[in-house]
Amino acid sequence: MKILILVGGGTKHLQPFVKAGVRLGVEVVAASFSQLEYSSGDCVLRISGEDLKNFVVIYIRLVGERSEDAAIVAQYAVKNKIPLVDSIFARGPAAHAPLKKSLETLLLVKAGIPMPSTIFGSLALLLNKAPQKFGYPFIIKGTYGKQGHAVWLVKDKGELEEIKGRLEDLEKEGKRFLAQEFIKITQRERVFVIGGKVMGTVTLSTKWRRYVQSLDVSRPARRPLAEQETYRLAASAAKALGIDVAGVDVIRDNETGKVYILEVNSAPRWAKFQKETGIGVEEEILKYLTTLSA
Ligand SMILES: Nc1ncnc2c1ncn2[C@@H]1O[C@H](COP(=O)(O)OP(=O)(O)O)[C@@H](O)[C@H]1O
Ligand SMILES: [Mg+2]
């Protein structure tokens, strides 16, 4: 039984998977999309010369800049009935992880997952509608963002004027945005889900916790998030998107106590989780991947 794990860049950080494979007695091939090849003669898709059909499961771990290659792998895997993780890749060429936040939000809301109230559209539309719909403060997010690099808190009209020019420049480059109600949170629960099963959670901080603390609305926050509800929501959100290895952020409004999904991360980092829980995440992922082989 041979499992293929693919990444957009170098394969060095996949070594823990290879080692976990040795412990479990599963052969793991860690490869980069740059090793992909085919010839129009037979149209066999190979990675370092080996037909992808030789693998029982393909886990696309990180796409990076390689969505072109990921699409080729996905269609070959679907055609040859090789199970794909994350399963979103098997949904068709337009769907792949990481999902843009615009499509992610739409799919989650449609699946009945509670999300912060959101509008998507041109910047002109967002800047016109968001202040009326949400009042101040509200959130603007680049749909492409990750690790908090493209999220802005707009506290008043002055701040809106301040960031407007910068956002307009980004929009001209082709970036898209959404506006969102601001949820008063000082922490989030990062729930790790593998193949529909919740492995556990870690508590992480939030970007505007000091601002929220200054608002003095944190009374209900002392009540911990109910574990069952958190787990159920996180697992449903991951499933709705077809992200089988997911880090789902669950939040609760300090003021109202309402619970929301903030986002579903594919290929989440798990150093902190592993340290706190002692769970060998690579091993758990491999165990899941082996259950998919026919
Ligand atoms: N609607 C929101 N209300 C309050 N804080 C938010 C909201 N959206 C995002 N944030 C804050 O910004 C951070 C990054 O946002 P997120 O949607 O997770 O994007 P990214 O993909 O960049 O991590 C979150 O961890 C949270 O602290
Ligand atoms: Mg995030």
What would you note in describing this structure?
The protein has about 290 residues and is of the alpha+beta class. The chain is about 35% helix and about 25% strand. It folds into 3 domains: about 1-90, Rossmann fold, CATH 3.40.50.20; about 115-180, ATP-grasp fold, A domain (Dna Ligase, domain 1), CATH 3.30.1490; about 185-265, ATP-grasp fold, B domain (D-amino Acid Aminotransferase, Chain A, domain 1). The protein is built from 9 helices and 15 strands. A 4-stranded parallel beta sheet has the order 2-1-6-7. The chain binds adenosine-5'-diphosphate (ADP) and magnesium ion (MG). Magnesium ion binds near residues 249 and 263.
Largest sheet: 4 strands, parallel
CATH topology name of the largest domain, in short, is Rossmann fold
The CATH level-2 architecture of the largest domain is identified as 3-Layer(aba) Sandwich
Structural class label: alpha+beta
Q: Round the mean pLDDT to the nearest integer and report it.
A: 94
The figure for the number of domains is 3
Number of helices: 9
Main sheet strand line-up: 2-1-6-7
Share of helical residues: 25-40%
Q: What small molecules accompany the polymer chains?
A: adenosine-5'-diphosphate, magnesium ion
CATH class of the largest domain: Alpha Beta
Dominant shape: globular
Task: Report the uncertain regions.
Answer: none
Strand content: 25-35%
Organism: Candidatus Blackburnbacteria bacterium RIFCSPHIGHO2_01_FULL_43_15b
Keywords: ATP-binding, Coiled coil, Nucleotide-binding
Coiled coil: 153-180
InterPro entries: ATP-grasp, ATP-grasp_RimK-type, ATP_grasp_subdomain_1
